[in-house]
TrEMBL record:
Domain Aminotransferase class I/classII large per the UniProt entry, residue ranges: 28-378
A Pfam match: Aminotran_1_2
NCBIfam families named among the record's database cross-references: PRK09082.1 (NF006569), PRK12414.1 (NF009079)
Source organism per UniProt: Emticicia aquatica
Listed GO MF terms: methionine-oxo-acid transaminase activity
Name under which the protein is recorded: Methionine aminotransferase
Gene3D superfamilies registered for this protein in UniProt: Aspartate Aminotransferase, domain 1 (3.90.1150.10), Type I PLP-dependent aspartate aminotransferase-like (Major domain) (3.40.640.10)
Gene behind the chain: ybdL
Keyword field contains Transferase: yes
Top-rank EC class of the record's enzyme: transferase
EC number: 2.6.1.88
Length: 381
């Protein structure tokens, strides 16, 4: 039997490739974005508690009410945004599902979605599998990856269905500013363009910056899907639990698709997070935790020949190796994994045309021992 591929140009994700190579060679894995330390023991106790309590059957399709209620309260307390837990908050199997479901809910054949590249690798496949087309706005390393809103405006056509944003951005670590959100609001005013906002790193923002969601703008909230995750905030990426915040009419269509893709998410995890979120320090402390890791990693790299701008958010640090070699970034990432035992992600894979700016991405969501050892090896180059 032969199958006509819907994604003939898509291979294995770079994260799987580099993590597998790191495992095969025994390299320090600073490629894929997951911590190498455990989550809170309290969180594990809560999951175990609810498993023993018998909370092991299907949860409601939209998520258990306690977790939706605490998310509504948290969102209001932090950002002043009001979402009704009954019909405007949906629990999903991680942010990747939230993004895919959003595309399924809103896209029709040949609809266009504006995507900023370098772009996380699940975005474009989700658009194309749902009949849409990605329209790229390329962020320039020479402009510190800031968004040129005039260029965005030039890419809008009568087929534009949505604009997909990430803040903090992966892989650059760039955060949206109030000026960005104001520009976006002016650009989509009096249009039927949706905004899809990937905010999985909302609590991992540095140097006193504040998280700014497009939905915080009064003129954007009605058209915005906010996609979030518990995995990045609470060091539980393997639990695959996230959420989508959207106005009632948008959530209704979102749930129509969600019920066929996942239907419901693990019940004991939902109850555990519902309890864990009641203590704000459990998520507010994450900012300082990761800023200290970013600062240590940068400090340990100071003796190297890399050049870098400290990440504004996320748990990734991009570094330029232009002073070391002209080798293509993909080849270099593979070679250094094998030869010096440090795995990274080449940034060119996040571009449609594989633009090579001689930049690698390192994940600093690792214990200090691993980060220091990796930096020591990198400084010898």
């Amino acid at each position: 039997m032969q199958i006509s591929s819907k994604q003939p140009n898509i291979g294995t994700t770079i994260f799987t490739v580099m993590s597998q190579l790191a495992a095969e060679t025994g390299a320090l894995n600073l490629s894929q974005g997951f911590p190498n330390y455990n989550c809170s023991p309290k969180l594990i106790e809560l999951v175990n508690h609810y498993m023993k309590m018998g909370m092991n059957q299907y949860a409601p399709m939209a998520g258990i009410m306690p977790i939706r209620e605490i998310l509504a309260q948290k969102t209001f307390d932090l950002y002043g945004m009001t979402y009704n837990p009954n019909d405007e908050i949906t629990i999903v199997s991680g942010c990747t599902e939230a993004l895919y479901v959003t595309m399924t809910a809103i896209l029709h054949k040949d609809d266009e979605v504006i995507v900023f590249e370098p772009a996380y690798d699940s975005y474009v496949p989700a658009i194309e599998l749902n009949g849409g087309k990605a329209v790229y706005v390329t962020l320039s390393s020479e402009n510190d990856f800031a968004i040129n809103w005039q260029e965005v405006q030039s890419k809008i056509t009568n087929k534009t269905k949505a604009i997909l944003l990430t803040t903090p951005h992966n892989p650059t670590g760039k955060c949206l500013t109030q000026s960005d959100v104001d520009s976006l609001a002016a650009l989509v005013k009096n249009t039927n363009i949706f905004v899809i906002s990937d905010e999985v790193y909302e609590h991992i923002i540095f140097d006193g910056r504040k998280h700014i969601s497009p939905a915080m703008h009064a003129d954007l909230k009605e058209r915005t899907f906010v996609c979030g995750s518990f995995g990045k905030t609470f060091h539980t990426t393997g639990w695959k639990l996230g959420y989508c915040l959207a106005p009632k009419e948008l959530s209704a269509e979102f749930r129509k698709a969600h019920q066929w893709i996942t239907f419901s998410c693990p019940t004991p995890f939902q109850y555990a997070f519902a309890d864990f979120l009641k203590e704000p320090d459990n998520y507010l402390s994450v900012t300082q935790f990761y800023q200290e890791k970013r600062d240590k990693f940068i400090h340990w790299l100071r003796g190297s020949r890399f050049t870098l701008t400290p990440a504004e958010g996320s748990f990734f640090q991009m570094v330029s190796y232009k002073n070391i070699t002209d080798e293509p970034d993909y080849d270099l990432a593979v070679r250094w994994t094998k030869e010096i035992g440090v795995a990274s992600i080449p940034i060119s894979v996040f571009y449609a045309d594989k633009i090579d700016n001689k930049i690698l991405r390192f994940c600093f969501a690792k214990d200090d021992e691993m980060l220091e050892k990796a930096a020591e090896r990198l400084c010898k180059l």
